[in-house]
Write a structure and sequence with these properties.
Blueprint (H helix, E strand, L loop, with lengths): L6 E5 L3 H12 L4 E5 L6 H7 L6 E2 L3 H6 L5 H10 L2 H11 L4 E3 L4 E4 L5 H13 L3 E3 L3 E6 L2 E5 L5 E4 L3 E5 L14 H7 L14 E2 L4 H7 L3 E9 L2 E9 L3 E3 L1 H4 L2 H11 L2 E6 L6 H8 L8 H7 L4 H10 L2 H5 L3 H8 L2 E5 L2
Parallel strand pairs: 1-2, 1-10, 2-6
Antiparallel strand pairs: 3-5, 4-5, 7-8, 8-9, 11-14, 12-13, 12-15, 13-14, 15-16
Helix pairs in contact: 1-6, 11-15
């Protein structure tokens, strides 16, 4: 039995659990983290492969709207620890310099999660936080928390208080398997059902497009759905689209798919260029150039040209004026189906 802790954090050592442990330790509590994985922060490390977007630099009122339906009840917490405070914590507390990217998102200068995580774990160690890997939470045994360790042996803990930081069900291999919902449901704890979030979406591409462009980055890009517009980057997959700008709208897109079976979006392939400027650029005589050569000479990638063809009937493309073509490239319609 572990009687040493005032507080234990169970059972995923992700950012939420680590941050809770830090705050509690700084407040003077003795903290033990029980983690079902062999090492902490595994999902954080995977996220860091894409640059580790820490937060956003936009004004706070606009930033809070990104939380959608949760914005009202989360606002006090965000005001108490706004993006500027997070950046200060990363740079001053962990010694990891940050910068603002072209999309307004904030990244560590190293563009990697590993240096940040190493510094964070050292900070926790210096605060006296104990970390126990390979301890999977199984529920309760009487008034004690029940874990099983790497050997399969039962481990009991009776801390003064317990904080659960259990993750979702998005990545079982990295620990987020959602099995904890069964433990809490058995205790009649009310739960909000787990739903897809920060997810990619299915687009019924043609076989040619899927095989030719799967894995290709789509940038710069802005996407609009239901009056909301986000700018960033996306990646074409064999089955659809994923990436930061898609994740930023994943909640309303998911809700639309659940309600009607589809979600309609428009893609702006030249978000930094006003419609009039693009029309003027495309107004240069096309001559005998093919559509592909014509658009590529105007700076559009083969992927952008293929997207235009994928979403526009050939008979419409044939006679498009420069103004109509420009409008299409700045509001390319796309239907997401799952």
């Amino acid at each position: 039995c572990d009687w040493s802790s005032d507080v234990c954090s169970s059972d995923l050592a992700g950012p939420a659990g680590l941050m809770a442990a830090e705050q509690l330790a700084m407040a003077g509590y003795r903290v033990t983290i029980y983690d079902q994985m062999p090492t902490p922060g595994r999902k954080l490390l995977i996220a860091g492969r894409g640059g580790l977007n820490l937060t956003h630099s936009e004004p706070l009122p606009e930033f809070i709207t990104r939380y959608g339906a949760a914005a009202e009840w989360l606002a006090p917490a965000v005001h108490a620890f706004p993006p500027e405070a997070l950046r200060a914590w990363v740079s001053e507390g962990l010694g990891q310099e940050t910068f603002v990217g072209s999309s307004g998102r904030v990244f560590p200068r190293s563009m990697k999660a590993a240096p940040l995580l190493r510094a964070w774990l050292l900070r926790l160690q210096q605060l006296g936080v104990e970390y126990l890997p390979r301890h999977r939470w199984r529920g309760w045994h009487g008034d004690a928390l029940l874990f099983t360790n790497a050997a399969g042996d039962a481990v009991l803990a009776r801390p003064g208080a317990t904080l659960l930081a259990l993750g979702g069900a998005s990545w079982p291999r990295l620990g987020s398997d959602g099995t904890w919902t069964q433990i809490l449901a058995a205790k009649q704890v009310p739960l909000t059902p787990l739903r897809p979030a920060n997810c990619g979406f299915v687009v019924p591409w043609s076989d040619y497009f899927a095989s030719r462009f799967a894995g290709a980055p789509l940038k710069p890009l802005s996407i609009t759905h239901g009056g909301l517009t986000r700018q960033g980057e996306a990646v074409v997959t064999a089955t659809g689209l994923e990436g930061g700008v898609i994740y930023a709208l994943s909640t309303p897109l998911r809700d639309a798919v659940e309600a009607s079976g589809t979600a309609d979006v428009t893609l702006d392939l030249r978000p930094a260029m006003p419609l009039a400027a693009l029309t003027q650029k495309l107004g240069t005589a096309r001559g005998n150039k093919s559509l592909s050569s014509y658009l590529r000479s105007a700076g559009f990638s083969p992927l952008a040209v293929a997207l235009l063809r994928e979403t526009t009937p050939p008979e419409q493309l044939a006679g498009m004026s420069a103004s109509t073509l420009a409008a299409r490239l700045k509001a390319l319609p796309l239907r997401l189906t799952a």
